[in-house]
Amino acid sequence: MLRRTSGSSLCYRCGRLNRVDADRCFYCGAPRPGLWGWGHLLGRLGADVDVARVVIAVAVIAYVASLGLDPAGLFRSRGPFNLLSPSQSALVALGMTGSLPWAAGYWWTLLTATYLHGSLLHILFNLLWVRQLGPAVEEFYGRPRTFLIFTAAGVAGFALSNALGIAFTVGASGAVFGLLGAMVHFGRSRGGAYGVAILRQYWQWALVLFVLGFLMSGVNNAAHAGGFLGGYLAAAALGHEATRPERPWHTLAAIAVAAFTLMAFGLALWTAFGVRI
Question: What's the CA gap between 22 and 28, in Å, rounded?
């Protein structure tokens, strides 16, 4: 049976062994440390899910859906940088964010816009960086915390962008900068020759990408800055394996955030049937 009714299980808060049916953790006092016998599954779930692959899969599905919602938009591309660009109406229907959707009360777009992209080159560039950075961040923070950092960075980046008045925006680049911020935090907190090498490498990557953003048109540099800061702070709050081992509650939090993100897409689609910006 998947659910355990006897034996021991790790507490989701402090990570120490308790009886599965204990009312409170003997060490930290957390209620139901065995999560009614389901706690052991959380660790297994977190170990079996590759964050980068999940992000890529959701982004590709959202991109294909955005093209399918308005096929005529495929023929309105202007040059190679706009090849296979979804229409704005399709992106708004799926959860495009910006100061205008935010002013209309579409708070859920802070979550959905990370998985939406404005062209073929846009999604390829961002997802290549997700594939590059995701495994590195997972190595030091674990998969549940990597997903939490990615999501927090995307939200922080778009929150700053919306506050500065950028009308419409999409893309995973703010969250990508958050992954860079997490690696910079790891390098700084780890210290030593290894930590300094990590810090130098990822800080240089972040700086180069940020400068390049000012040399290209249509780049949301505010989301990049906000995403980097959001990822750094989220990493500092959650800790990494060298200082704070992964706990089941990290997996539980990641599952809750994933469910909330799916709900956000549902709200976007539901709203699109009756409301237009």
Answer: 12
